[in-house]
Amino acid sequence: MITDCDEARLITMQDRLVPLLTVERLSKAYGAVVACDRVSLSLYPGQVLGIIGESGSGKTTLLKAIATHLPIDSGRVCYTSTAGQALDLHELPLPRRRQLMRTEWGFVQQNPRDGLRMNVTAGANIGERLMEVGGRHYGQIRQTAGLWLDQVEISQARMDDFPHTFSGGMQQRLQLARVLVTSPRLVLMDEPTGGLDVSVQAKLLDLIRSLVRTLQLSVILVTHDIGVVRLLAHRLLVMQGGQVVEAGLTDQVLDDPQHPYTQQLVSATLVP
Amino acid sequence: MTSTAISPSPVSTNSLLWADNLHKRFILHAQGGICLPVLKGTSLKVKPGECVILQGPSGSGKSTFMRSLYANYRVDSGAIWVKHGENRIDLTQCQPHELMAIRQKTIGYVSQFLRVIPRVPALEVAAEPLMELGLEAAAARDNVRSLFRRLNLPERLWSLSPTTFSGGEKQRLNIARAFSVDFPILLLDEPTAALDAANREVVIELIEEKKARGCALIGIFHDEQVWQRVGNRVLTFGREDETALGESHE
Lengths: 272, 250
Hints:
The complex is a heterodimer of chains A (272) and B (250). With 272 residues, chain A is an alpha/beta fold. Chain A contains 10 helices and 11 strands.
């Protein structure tokens, strides 16, 4: 039978998009325990990549290794900078790496107390980051901080209050403002809605979702919550025992899970 | 990076979508590795302006087939060639970011269900695909408003989150969301299931307009009156044969 495409050459599609981040065969062990076993992934601009897996699956280690918060045993983390340079992050001189992390990257901690400075005011938490990247004008910094409080739906009247007087959900929103104020291109989030009430979670998720869209952020999001990735992630990696056992578009992985572990994870979730 | 198979547009064909010999089985690991073969060599070609109806008893695989055409389900073997821009691309070989681009520009899908985003107004939900294509927000909203009007979605609902919408209201929102974009290929999964007679008529009109513009449609319709009117051909599941409408269905 002669088919439509028989005569067609198969050629390699030129990727019109250049990945923002490429992780190649990244491995990291703690003694005999392999936390990440030859993990590879790529992230394209404007995409949200979810990483799910239970505690101990290596997902947080992977995130920290990508952020160079941890040394790695082997592999590469390659980042394409605003200037279009491909940078091997773990080989980069420390000052240059730090500068990148301050300007082009952001990291949202699971516990807002780890991501905020608890002994300075909400306004200062945001303003401090601006000063790190060269902001000098007090009035402007304060004004920008106020705008960001609006963005994350915290009243500007709370600008001079300390974060410990905030609820958990507010602290997490403040951390988002602190991270996003410098307009990073890539944001890494570790269980950003963990430990919050369901109603507070929904609001935060919705906020993250709209910020990701309006700011065209690329995000890697680690969570064990399938509802969170359903709502936020375009793509999904499933990790078990340090390995990526399944990957694809979020709806593919969740609607047609193939690996036994993913099937178990999906069927164990209460359908909302 | 693995490569994606694409081919320069062959002159020998004008079909927009060509599913070739699709096989799909489900393996349920939690139930002793039970294997359910659902698609066993299903093929289909759809040309511009055609509407193909998927028919068959429930469980016969028509939904699985349709979901495979959207790459929501991943087939075990076979190819799904789709005309994407000037190229023909095999969906089964695409990288996730390529699939995202194909879903943005080439294949639209009207599902029976709406995955509700809390707090986002209906108008914004429906205008999202157009805005992702780079249309200005005001133009995208105008486009959606006119579809909402045609589908008789009460104006007081437009600024509300669809969380509290009825089934029929959600369905009309879904239809507006997918029909606002000029997709060359549209997949319709029971788009009229929750609609009253008047709105069903509107959807039939909208489908006819898409056909006139050269869109290739594939639909599952519960309502025989609807598919008899919009369908050009029927692909029957369970029996795995394809018939022209009017030949075997009198």
